[in-house]
# Entry
Amino acid sequence: MLTMKNILVPTDFSEPTVAATRHAVDLAKRLDATIHLLHVIEDPVILAPIFEGIPLPPRQSFETYAQDRLENWITENDREGLKLELHWFHGHPFTRIIEFATDHRMDLIVMGTHGRSGLAHTLLGSLTEKVVRHARCPVMTVRGE
# Structure
């Protein structure tokens, strides 16, 4: 029998991840699973030459923002009866999502997708698509509403 006790929900706080979170919450409650809500902070230092002369916010402000958003991402009503763990890390989203899912033995990853196609998909790529191809566990994709 297939059991799912740990569900990873990576979020960039966009509309597609709202829909993915709703599905994950419903699934976690039905399966008595824990949701691991994950946000990866992409450090803007890489882009610093582009913003020469524009002061970047301190790293702590990105961390505070991530923690606040994660703590409020799931409503109080939805939290009732839900096992929830919050995580944030600095790094590249694809790498950190795959590492987290592997290291913590996630049973399922639930991700939102923007549903881009054509040139937008080619230029921007798809984080969700990369995760689907490389994750060791099943990945459920949810298109934004």
Observations:
- The chain has six helices and five strands.
- The first strand starts at residue 6 and ends at 10.
- The chain has one domain: 6-143.
